[in-house]
DNA sequence: TTAAAATTAGTACGTTTGTACTAATTTTTA
DNA sequence: TAAAAATTAGTACAAACGTACTAATTTTAA
């Protein structure tokens, strides 16, 4: 990729993350970089194009993480390692998550893509749960659609954990590695079998 | 309260809910009402003042709901009824939740108030759980801070359920009464005792 | 080395933003 | 009913917005 284009994306990411997407204009980005607004428009005709470039960067990173997890065996430890790396990526592109509603409302390309994405994510999750049940670590569902509902909650937590931190914490900025993984682990704990809970409690102390 | 002031708040609420807080200017509100911008500035000098008036309306409604719940006995049915009414209120003031990060970032008054609020909410929740444990409906915690973590997740779901719907659903606008209560119920189900689960399964069919 | 292409700077346009100000009108009060 | 207060309309302004345009410069390629 072009050198300037890369620099623009880096600056935009930093500014979006710091001040929030609606608070950062194209001029602020070019000023921040010390380049002319015309130069910026040359590389990205619209602000939406910058958003999209960053969004698809994020998506590619996450796809790569999913691919890597798919290669490993199904285990609690691997799941947790995956969630951990997932949250690091989320944090790197946190403006996407902190302003996700605004982003989707004002950018049809991203909105359409994301809506497709979460459908396949859900299927992936349910397949994984099935494998966990087969391996005797997760219990069978006790309620209709119990694991579909679990996924729904986990999705909300993945998408909005940073937002929740942002509006809760008194500290300015974020602690890069908070308790997100611990929160995720607690979400799945009640669905484990005795065998699963035992394994879980061996791993847990490492995250507290 | 003044008649015009009331009309301004109603219009602002509707426009904020529909188009999103950052997409609605003071002029759009006055245009929508057919009053002059000068008139609007007379009643609310700054846009933030409108946000705050609506936010504190919301807070008052919720306080009233908490008060009403506090009067009733501790039971699953009463809890669910409460969550239901809670979500209706959230939906009425949905712009607060859909743009909550942007709102908090740009409005110090609301931000400060909210951060105080959730502290007392957490304590209320934990007290309630204790009562549920005493009544034999919830099990004891199996992990350190297990119910603190449950609360954290429930808080995220309460605050961001509408956002999750907004970015997930293909329908324009919202279905006023979605599956939020069902989602909440699934959150607490795994923590119930056998007695609690039995009670739960009697109530569940009413919500599907 | 010279022509073409890509990149950059600089400027400018029409809107919209938040907000301030004055003057007219309506309502309230004495 | 007259004076005072509250409310409303209308206008204006500087700043910022997204974006378009042209001209200069640099890089690439023939």
TrEMBL record, chains A, B:
<dbReference type="Pfam" id="PF13972">
    <property type="entry name" value="TetR"/>
</dbReference>
<dbReference type="InterPro" id="IPR050624">
    <property type="entry name" value="HTH-type_Tx_Regulator"/>
</dbReference>
<dbReference type="InterPro" id="IPR001647">
    <property type="entry name" value="HTH_TetR"/>
</dbReference>
<protein>
    <submittedName>
        <fullName>TetR/AcrR family transcriptional regulator</fullName>
    </submittedName>
</protein>
<keyword id="KW-0238">DNA-binding</keyword>
<dbReference type="GO" id="GO:0003677">
    <property type="term" value="F:DNA binding"/>
</dbReference>
<dbReference type="InterPro" id="IPR009057">
    <property type="entry name" value="Homeodomain-like_sf"/>
</dbReference>
<feature type="DNA-binding region" description="H-T-H motif">
    <location>
        <begin position="25"/>
        <end position="44"/>
    </location>
</feature>
<dbReference type="InterPro" id="IPR025722">
    <property type="entry name" value="TetR"/>
</dbReference>
<dbReference type="Pfam" id="PF00440">
    <property type="entry name" value="TetR_N"/>
</dbReference>
<feature type="domain" description="HTH tetR-type">
    <location>
        <begin position="2"/>
        <end position="62"/>
    </location>
</feature>
